Amino acid sequence: MSEELVVNSWNVNGIRAVYGKGFLDWIRHENADVVCIQETKARYDQLPVELKEIYDADGKPYHHYYAEAKRPGYSGTALFTRHKPLSVSKLGIDEFDDEGRYIEADFGSFVIASAYFPNSQEGGARLDYKLRFCEAVLVHAENLVSKGKHIIIAGDYNIAHTPIDLFYPKENEGNPGYLPEERAFMTRFLDHGFIDVFRYFHPGEPGHYTWWSYRARAREKDIGWRIDYHCINKAFLSNIVKASIQKTVMGSDHCPIQLCITV
After folding, report:
1. Is 156 a catalytic residue?
2. CB 178 within 8 A of CB 222
3. Nearest alpha carbon to residue 262 among 33, 36, 78
4. Which stretches does DSSP call E strand in 117-215?
5. Are 87 and 98 in contact (CB under 8 A)?
6. Phi and psi of 218, rounded to 5°?
7. Among residues 94, 97, 98, 156, which one is catalytic?
8. Is the pTM of this model over 0.85?
9. pLDDT, averaged in runs of 10, over the chain (263 residues)
10. Neighbours of 176 (CB within 10 A)
11. Which of 227, 86, 57 is nearest to 149 (CA)?
């Protein structure tokens, strides 16, 4: 008998900040099986006890795992899961693990990762670092697939892949998140047997965004970018039920995204 699992992902732009904006209410309301968090911006010992003892809608505790950045108040990822994984690991590369960029949980036949891809920054100041991270994630994902694993890489990729993935594509050419090198990586990633699930279900549809600038009332006007993804290996596609964007959920400059799968 197959079981349906819900995998949510959200760049919270500071877990302590979003904690004061209804984060735990969202967790309980959604009652997802796995929650992938990016940009926690906190060490574990800085968290209030409520973020160390997170409960689902039935009052049962989530297993929680954090990947912290060494730099205070910066980056960081986390995973909350109702089902205890076989193991939890980072990417295993110091320059990325030191920024808490990636954490994954192994559930046997499949792996779920929470990933926070670097921002390439103005003038491409960190583009080389970002592309190294992108390549490391691709190599790691291919290695898992070669071992017979399915994989879901959920998170903030900081890349708008195609012109329909942002409101002002022409005006943003040359800006971080829409650089040719970043978009080329996303194309290559998908060409290597991975699928952008939301786009698979909504091909050619503009106007779907997951991030909005805090400037010029961008969210109110829905002038945004789609830079948050659930990506899977192609063989896992038959297990996908649906993918959606929760644009009405507030608390961060990103909104959550959701994936439903059968396992």
Report:
1. yes
2. no
3. 33
4. 150-156, 194-196, 211-212
5. no
6. -60, -40
7. 156
8. yes
9. 91 97 97 98 94 94 97 97 97 98 98 98 96 98 98 98 98 97 98 98 97 96 98 97 97 98 95
10. 20
11. 86
